[in-house]
Amino acid sequence: MTRRICLALDLVDDADLIAEYERWHQVGNTPPEILASIRDAGIENMEIFRLADRMVMVMDVTEDFDAAAKAKADEENPHVIAWEKRMQQFQRALPGAPRIAWTEMERIFRLIDHPGS
Fold first, then answer.
1. In whole angstroms, what separates CA 73 from the centre of its chain?
2. Rounded CA gap, 28 and 91, in Å?
3. Where does the pLDDT of residue 117 fall: very low under 50, low under 70, confident under 90, or very high at 90 and above?
4. What is the radius of gyration, based on Cα positions, of the chain?
């Protein structure tokens, strides 16, 4: 069974930087080592959506996905370290967030929890 995790992050509000950030995420531009690190962690699918400088990431993960284990593996992976360093130039912290990082969002509504007619 999979579960869904949603995260948010802001981009630097600069059209050229946003365009470059999007280019890095196009098919063929994301390094294969990054894609492998995502899949190896138990992330079955990942999508990023953007509106202006706000982004939302939706991850479908395996039931045994461990965010702390993924973070630890990332800290030891030179490819991920280089990728994160590259991406930091485009990103900025969400208002109220302690640092520049994808921040998990709290689900407040799910249609299937509400009785239908």
1. 16
2. 21
3. low
4. 15
